[in-house]
């Protein structure tokens, strides 16, 4: 097991459940050395993520933790598609969607949870460009969803 694979297991020991075969999407699409990871939420295995709106039902600290878990799930999806995180050359772009109240302005703080996890696991390969976006709602009512784009070994 690679160092990055071990770091991921340390950060979050349980991978998310695989997408059902009947799902109309792919968890990861790889095209010309770039991997696009579908939006991830903070499932731990099959355990449901926290639900609610940041700034009302969910604190910023809780949302930071949810962003870490969602980013870890993105890495687990990459690992499943590539066999090992050693094949990840660099995380290029991260988009963090935060289900937040209209007055919340701490979306970047929430997104830092995802960014820090990626750097903890991948080191400098985890450094990336990022957008942190406040939205009115997210699927299932989760507070955070994270998308990853990575350059990967062919």
Q: Nutshell version of this structure?
A:
Helices cover 31% and strands 25% of the residues.
How many domains? 1
Beta-strand portion reads 25-35%
Distance between the termini: 20 Å
Give me the CATH architecture, please: 2-Layer Sandwich
The CATH C-level class name: Alpha Beta
**SSE succession:** HEEHEHEE
The helix fraction, in percent, is 25-40%
Molecular structure report:
This protein is an alpha+beta fold. It has a single domain (3-15, 27-152), classed as 60s Ribosomal Protein L30, Chain: A, CATH 3.30.1330. It has 3 helices and 5 strands, in the order αββαβαββ. It has helices at 3-11, 60-82, 107-122, and strands spanning 28-31, 34-40, 88-99, 129-135, 144-152. A 5-stranded mixed sheet has the order 1-2-5-3-4. α3 links the parallel β3 and β4. α1 (3-11) crosses α3 and α2 packs parallel to α3 (107-122). The longest helix has 23 residues, at 60-82. The chain is globular and about 45 Å long. The two termini are 20 Å apart.
Which structural traits does this protein have?
alpha+beta; five-stranded mixed beta sheet; 5 strands; 154 residues; single chain; 60s Ribosomal Protein L30, Chain: A; globular; 3 helices; 31% helix
Secondary structure elements and pairings:
Blueprint: H1 3-11, E1 28-31, E2 34-40, H2 60-82, E3 88-99, H3 107-122, E4 129-135, E5 144-152
Parallel strand pairs: 3-4
Antiparallel strand pairs: 1-2, 2-5, 3-5
Helix pairs in contact: 1-3, 2-3
């Amino acid at each position: 097991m690679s160092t990055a694979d071990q770091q991921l297991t340390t950060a979050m020991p349980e991978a998310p459940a695989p997408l059902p075969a009947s799902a109309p999407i792919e968890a990861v699409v790889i095209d010309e050395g770039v991997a696009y990871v579908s939006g991830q939420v903070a499932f731990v295995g099959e355990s449901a993520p926290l639900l609610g709106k940041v700034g009302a039902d969910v604190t910023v600290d809780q949302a930071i933790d949810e962003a870490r878990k969602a980013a870890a799930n993105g890495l687990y999806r990459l690992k499943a598609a590539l066999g090992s995180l050693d094949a990840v050359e660099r995380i290029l772009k991260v988009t963090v969607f935060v289900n937040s109240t209209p007055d919340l302005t701490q979306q970047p703080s929430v997104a830092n949870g995802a960014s820090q996890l990626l750097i903890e696991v991948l080191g400098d390969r985890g450094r990336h460009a990022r957008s942190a976006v406040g939205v009115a709602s997210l699927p299932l009512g989760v507070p955070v969803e994270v998308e990853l784009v990575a350059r990967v070994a062919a």
